[in-house]
Structure formats: C-alpha cells, structure tokens
User: Fold this.
Amino acid sequence: MAAVQVPLPADYVDRSPEELAERIRAAKAKLGDRLVILGHHYQRDEIIEHADFRGDSYKLAKDANLRPEAEFIVFCGVHFMAESADILTPDHVKVILPNLAAGCSMADMASIFQVRRAWKDIGTALGTTEGVIPVTYINSAANLKAFVGEHGGTVCTSTNAPTAVAWALEQGEKVLFFPDQHLGRNTGVRLGFDPDADMLVWDPFKPMGGHTPDEIQRAKFLLWKGHCSVHKRFSVAQIEAARESHPGVTVLVHPECELDVVRAADLNGSTEFILKSVENSAAGSTWAIGTEINLVSRLAKEHPDKTIFCLDPQICPCSTMYRIHPSFLAWTLENLAEGNLVNQVQVPEDVKVWSRVALQRMLTVWA
Ligand code: SF4
Assistant:
C-alpha cells in the first residue's frame, strides 16, 4: 500500500523558512474551503502553524470528518493516520500525505503476513482461535485493522485501551494485542493482570512466537513484540534524575513507555491526556514529560507560567514525523492548487470494508 516519494523539484529545495511559509499560506488561501490540513502534535511548529486541526491520532481520526464538504485532507502526520482518515471519510474526499516516506517504525513491526501466520500458530496451539480476540493499536496499517474487524476484534488508542481490552476479554478468553507490546502490557497491568503470569511476548520471527503450546494456552495476553522507538528511550534513571534536580516535579509519561517507567512515573496517559493534565495544572507547577520532543517544547512555550521539560535530555523527535518538512507541504499544496493531485493515500476497497468496521466500533463504543 505504501508508495515511493518522488524527489522534490529544485524549486522547493533550500528555500528559506519564510519563503516556504509564505508559499504555503498563498496556496492554502487559493484552495480555500476545498482544503483541510490536519497536524499531529508531534509535528514541528513550522507545520503546526498551518494546521486547521491539531490532535493525536485518535482526535485527528475524528476531526477528519469535521468538514465533510472539503475535497482534500492534507494529513501532516504518518502513513497509518492518513489511511485511517481515508477509511473514515466520504468517497469524494482525497487524503494526502505530504511525504510518502513518513511512516511509523512501530506500525512497520507487524505486517499482515506475520499476523496471519501468528493467528494460524495460535490456532494450532489452542486447537481453535475461537476465544482469541485480536486488538490492534490505531498505530497500525489498514490491513491489520481490517484483520481485527473481520475476526471480531477492535482498534484501540492509548486513551481507550483499557476499555477496549476489557471489552475484548468479555468477548473471549485471550487477547492478541499488536503491534505495541508496551501499551498492551501497561493496559493489562492497569486491568489487574500479572505481567509475568498472564502475559507473553509474541516474537513474529520465531515459530509459534517463541513459545510452547502450553505457554500459549496459559497466557491471557499475547503481546506482539513491537515498540515505539521514541517512547522506548525513556528510563527509570531519567525519572530519578528529574526528581533529584526538580524536587516536587510531576512525572508524566505516555503508555507506550516500558512498564517500569510507567510504574516509576506519577501519571501516564495519551497525548491528549498529557495536554489536559498540563493545561489544568496550577501555575508554578513543574512537569517532566516522557513523550515526543516537539510536543513537550510546544507545551513549554504555551505555558510559560509552568516549568516543563522532556525526561530525555538527549532530545527525542519522531524521525518519521519529521519527514513532513515545510518544503513537502508547499509542494503538495501548490500542486493541488494547480489541479495536480499528488501523494493521495488510498486504502483498497476490500480492506476499507473491514477496517471501517473495526474503527467505527472503537469510535462509537468508546468515543
Ligand atoms: S512516535 Fe512512535 S508510534 Fe508515534 S509515529 Fe513515531 S515511531 Fe510511530
């Protein structure tokens, strides 16, 4: 489904930030109501300033439908987000990713071929897959969302994962959770399960995920061996250092972090939870935040009355989100304004049917 990004024409290379911003504004004005720009919180400021709506992947999946009369949604985020927008919007809306190389390393850790093979192996170990409910994090390819839709499962986000997983356990006895093992584990622990006794990590590169049939039978959670390269960087040592340098600090991390980090933090939650927690906090409060640096830096700028810093002193941008450079946005919008459709992300119809079932289930049941 992913396509190759063509190199930018010379006219877009080495242009000053001011010139690019001006060209983006001009093309956007020319397109008027035909265009909606969505900006994920992890995008750089030079992109966010042009966004009509800003949010995390869950909020933007809903925002994609706020202007159904629009012709183009330019999604400044990564590939799986553009796919979700294409699945959820009417057929006349064209969803565009300014740089097709903007993927997600976590989403790439689970392919449909690997998931189908795991499903077969689980069926062999248990004698049936009945009673196994697949749950995919929204950070996954459209064909994985279709897989869960077709097999009685659901999509979840970091906001609604506990509710979605609790629902899955009411439908069956086990959950196959992909692609992020950490969100799966943190969610299971939050629901009262034991990470050692009740969970195993499914390694897609090993036969039977690296387990015996007996181990698979005993586990309640089969957690896909995937992770987010940004959130995996945060550590307990960083939390200890933050507490030492800033007594009274509140440590807030994303649930894509490892379990020991989540346990050592004061709070954990989705991007929108992080934003609201900081927004609603008292002036003078101090926050050490374990998530992507563009978001943390923007929060610090928008709340000068609070001390806000990133837990990781080495800085940790999402390198794939960063591929949406203003030069790509300018190229995309100027092409659209001239009548050239570029970089459309289109989910095949057969995949759309079941992935829409899975996404709509999430949006209607746990909105
Ligand atoms: S921050 Fe992690 S999960 Fe989010 S897009 Fe980047 S690699 Fe993927």
Observations:
- The longest helix spans residues 349-365.
- The pocket of iron/sulfur cluster is lined by residues 42, 78, 104-106, 139, 228-230, 292, 318, 320-321 (CB under 6 Å).
